Amino acid sequence: MKTLKNMIYSKTLSGAFIVLIFWYVLHLTIGSKIIPGPYETIVTFFRLMTGTLLLHMLVSLFRITAAMVISMGIGVPLGLWMGLSERADSVLTPVAYILYPIPKVAFLPIFMVIFGLGNSSKIILIISIVVFQILLAVRDGVKEIPTELHDSVRSLGLSRWQTYTNLVFPAVLPKIISALRVSIGVCIATLFFSENFATTYGIGYFIMNCWVMVDYVQMFAGILAMSLMGILIFKVIDFMERKICPWI
């Protein structure tokens, strides 16, 4: 276990080192204040973390976490139902196929009118995107279970709950983890967009406010904070995968 952790930390540090080198080369090549150097940005980042930047990060992290948890609470049961019931699949899958491709950011003004200008409209916007990824991933995971395994479970006389816990859940858990991992980028991008409207807290607001104030160092410090927030979420998902899907 210690060797695995050391490998993970080593890969993370190696990736960060490569990004810093590319960033520094780009800074030297552009030769403009628009792209400040890594050292200046990192120093500014730690200075701002003692002020309001940490609050902006925590607010954004809360919005993403709430949206992902609620999306799982909706998408997993519906996905299981669609995967196990042909009738539910025939009714709900066409609805998902119609709604999923629609760019949900277009509905942000409607969400703000209905749910207010606070956290609710931003969380619901993210849910409207992520829930379809989880729902379809779970449905596909259930449908990919070989028929022979279902027959084996029936021959053993397992109850419905035992079938779920011993066959269905282990089969769809990797799909759920993959869906969460893929949805992180979409979550952060959507959150960045939504935090530019009717809010005074959040990483998106902080970055765009620094851009308006022509403070590029603080703007890049905000981008660095967003990147670290994404890394934190990725690491939490990786930890969950090692704990609940040890066979992967």
Automatic annotation (TrEMBL):
Membrane topology: Multi-pass membrane protein
GO biological process terms on file: transmembrane transport
GO CC term (a single one): plasma membrane
Compartments (UniProt record): Cell membrane
Top-rank lineage group of the source organism: Bacteria
UniProt keyword annotations, A-Z: Cell membrane, Membrane, Transmembrane, Transmembrane helix, Transport
Domain ABC transmembrane type-1 stretches: 57-241
CDD domains: TM_PBP2
Pfam families, alphabetized: BPD_transp_1 (PF00528)
Stated family: Belongs to the binding-protein-dependent transport system permease family.
Name of this protein: ABC transporter permease
Organism: Clostridium aminobutyricum
